[in-house]
């Protein structure tokens, strides 16, 4: 048997399987450089994940105080004992005004329709105040 050696063929095949070219590597770096920031955009706001938890806790705290206000009799001030209380980092202030049925935001000064009790809850980590209110009808 006669063996034919083709050294050129073997060397040409090895040359094709030598790896990535410089252009392919640069192209891969550019694609990764564009893809990574676009993937990270939804995760950029994760530093503010505590705000919803604090808002829910403030809502439960306001509900607890509004329930305690509802249990009081009408001749007692609804805000008695609630003004500037600090619980778990929350500061709670209570304000009451007499309102008319046509405008629930303006203080009438006289007892005409109802009392509007507003609880304002603040926390150092929550931007802005959270306000909760309830109305108490007055005896006619």
Outline the structure in words.
The protein has helices at 7-16, 22-40, 50-70; strands at 85-87, 90-99, 114-122, 130-137. It is an alpha+beta fold and 140 residues long. It has two domains: 7-43, no CATH class; 51-137. A four-stranded antiparallel sheet has the order 1-2-3-4, covered by helices on one side. The mean pLDDT is 76.
Concise overview:
The protein is an alpha+beta fold.
Task: Lay out the secondary structure.
Elements: H1 7-16, H2 22-40, H3 50-70, E1 85-87, E2 90-99, E3 114-122, E4 130-137
Antiparallel strand pairs: 1-2, 2-3, 3-4
What profile does the largest beta sheet have?
A: 4 strands, antiparallel
CA-based gyration radius: 35 Å
- How far apart the termini lie comes to 122 Å
- How much of the sequence lies in strands comes to 15-25%
Order of strands across the main sheet: 1-2-3-4
Q: Low-confidence spans: pLDDT under 50, at least 5 residues?
A: none
Structural class estimated from helices and strands? alpha+beta
Note the run of SSEs as H and E.
Answer: HHHEEEE
